[in-house]
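One-letter codes give the sequence; the integers encode the fold. A sample entry reads:
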Amino acid sequence: MNKTARFLSVAAVAAFAAFGAHADEADGSQFALKFDTSRTRAEVAAEAATVAQTRSIEPAGSRVVTYKSTADRAAVRAQAAEALRTGQIPSGEFSAM
């Protein structure tokens, strides 16, 4: 049992050491970006201004469609009361049994 525990601990240390050997540089040089430096500051500022003017702050698909109702409030209330009275709209607690 002692040999098994020692073997497993040595294997764990070896695996951990091998994992550290695959580490890359800390500066992230493999992710370096290439920039086009031929544009002037004024060109970049003008482009940023046009993008800000054409961009909407509203997320895509979030606009709610508005609906203008022509129904009278009293008529809608009367229809709801009638539907409730005739049992078309359930009221009270619902029992699944």
Observations:
- Residues 27 and 33 are 13 Å apart (CA to CA).
- The chain has a mean pLDDT of 76.
- The longest helix spans residues 2-21.
